[in-house]
């Protein structure tokens, strides 16, 4: 298996850095993607409620594009996310790295999948620094992640299997929730019947 450093296959840059808290502006020229905009499993983004703002400085060069991969560099739960259709003039918060892979050789979805794998998380845990007790992945550590070189068709198969797994997990969760509600309703009905007997 041939591996190549992430820095050789993707442009890596930080998200939008602000010296102060990003002020909300209903008609702001830009939108900023933050952790709070992701669902719990970090697989979807709620663009309908994303914060709009007017930046302190020009940030046209930081606008996200379809095919970018976001990587959360701070905290205990690093994750990568492949950006699909994105709202216009959206930038990522400063705690994200924005990866722009060579899409002729690497699918963004595959790259995000690989960066979320246990082996990569183990590497990051080993080499991450600390900032006020919070793990921080440096750019150098991120750049040195070794990514397997695979054909696009093989990458597509991995991505398709990962999507099927995610769909299965969602369906299982929904089934479990419906079963729980059904049992709760049955128990409450039984309690009500017993109490009125």
Brief descriptors of the model:
197 residues; alpha+beta; Adenine-n6-DNA-methyltransferase TaqI, Chain A, domain 2; four-stranded antiparallel sheet; three-stranded mixed sheet; 5 helices; 11 strands
Overview of this protein structure:
This protein is α+β, with helices and mostly antiparallel strands. The protein folds into 2 domains: 3-149, DNA methylase specificity domains (Adenine-n6-DNA-methyltransferase TaqI, Chain A, domain 2, Alpha-Beta Complex); 151-197. It has helices at residues 6-9, 108-115, 118-127, 139-143, 152-195, and strands spanning 3-5, 10-14, 30-33, 51-53, 69-72, 80-82, 90-92, 96-101, 129-131, 134-136, 146-148. The strands form 4 sheets. The protein has a 4-stranded antiparallel sheet with strand order 2-8-5-6. A 3-stranded mixed sheet has the order 4-3-7, with no helix packed on it. A hairpin with a 2-residue loop joins β9 (129-131) and β10 (134-136).
Q: Can you tell me the CATH superfamily of the largest domain?
A: DNA methylase specificity domains
Report the strand count: 11
Overall number of domains: 2
Oligomerization state: single chain
Helix content: 25-40%
Uncertain ranges: none
Query: By helix and strand content, what is the structural category?
Result: alpha+beta
Let me know the largest β-sheet. 4 strands, antiparallel
What gap, in angstroms, lies between the N and C termini? 71 Å
Q: Could you tell me the radius of gyration in angstroms?
A: 21 Å
| Strand arrangement in the largest pleated sheet | 2-8-5-6
* Number of helical regions: 5
CATH class category name of the largest domain: Alpha Beta
The name of the CATH topology of the largest domain is: Adenine-n6-DNA-methyltransferase TaqI, Chain A, domain 2
């Amino acid at each position: 298996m041939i591996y190549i450093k992430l820095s050789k296959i993707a442009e890596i840059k930080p998200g939008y850095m602000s010296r102060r808290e990003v002020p909300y502006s209903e008609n702001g020229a830009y939108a900023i993607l933050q952790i709070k905009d992701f669902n719990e499993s970090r697989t979807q983004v709620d663009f309908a409620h994303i914060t709009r703002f007017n930046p302190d400085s020009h940030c046209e060069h930081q606008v996200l594009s379809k095919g970018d991969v976001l990587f959360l560099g701070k905290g205990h739960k690093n994750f990568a996310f492949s950006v699909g259709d994105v709202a216009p003039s959206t930038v990522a918060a400063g705690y994200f790295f924005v990866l722009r892979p060579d899409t002729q050789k690497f699918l963004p979805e595959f790259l995000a999948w690989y960066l979320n794998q246990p082996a990569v998380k183990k590497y990051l845990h080993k080499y991450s620094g600390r900032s006020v007790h919070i793990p921080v992945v440096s750019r150098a550590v991120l750049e040195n992640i070794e990514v397997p070189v695979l054909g696009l068709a093989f990458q597509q198969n991995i991505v398709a299997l990962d999507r099927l797994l995610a769909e299965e997990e969602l369906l299982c969760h929904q089934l479990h929730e419906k079963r729980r509600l059904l049992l709760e309703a049955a128990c409450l009905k039984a309690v009500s019947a017993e109490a009125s007997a």
